[in-house]
Amino acid sequence: MTLQRRNLLLAAAALPLVRARAEIPTFPSRPVRLVISFPPGSTSDMLARHLGEKLGSALGQPVVVESKPGAQGVIAARTVIHAKPDGHTLFLGTNSSHAANVYLIKNLGYDPIKDFTPISQVTTNPLLLVVNAKLPVKTVAELIDHAKAHPGKLNYGTGNSGSLVAAQLLKAQTGIQAQAVNYPGMPQATTDLVAGRLDFMMVDPLVIEPFVKSGQIRVLGLTSPQRLASMPQVAPLAELGLAGYRYESWSGLFGPAGLPADITRKLSEVVMTTLNSAASQSYLSRLGMIATASDPQHFGRFVREQIVLWRTLSRDAGLAVN
Asked: Any transmembrane segments, and where (predicted)?
């Protein structure tokens, strides 16, 4: 066999492999869908749109935010687990969808570990304890006294598992009695709080900020032990007579189970670069959030730890059904 013929045969044998590689689409090859479990106008919606804009710019494809609110994130999560694991469908999950729901919802319909690929944590989110300004209380101690003087008469709004558990922990620690009113999201609950149909609630800082400035809502304290850079004057509840009180929610980026390692790594690197930028940190601070990036391995361990933690949180709050 001549050298020329041998080279031709080798080249011919390699053609199927070259063709197969050429047929593998690069990521992303089309717009990316970012599914969220909160309604338009919510703080998480604003976070998702900021993140989507930055991801789209870095990836060279638009990122379209798709809102599927309701059922504490179950609807959105179930949507994502059936998507093709090619990186074109992502989920901005939270402590609700990936930790709390394990204990708060029967027949969840998905496994937060087995059915998802962790990409990166995105934020840590403390909440504010706020009251309608017409309620005759100006401090946490006065709220507790007022609630005990009117047992079962006060009501509060919940728009997600975070606001629900944070309020339940407050009730459990103080012994007050109040009625929960459930909403599909925080904006709807906030509307009723401002209108006076609710007395107090635990809420995202940005959602409530305009009404605090207008004097319609009064802030009593912060659920996290550390103060927010955007609201340094608001003291943690742990410093206001509720020793040991702590609640923080979080958000993170996930793909469906089976997301290839190279796509996972690429997305994680883009998210980490985005969150480490001064512009994103400043923007998230204005939303009342703390930018918190992590690689897929650390984020996966964090989610597992959160599932264990939420067993305690939900049971201490008297909410666990599983």
From this structure: none
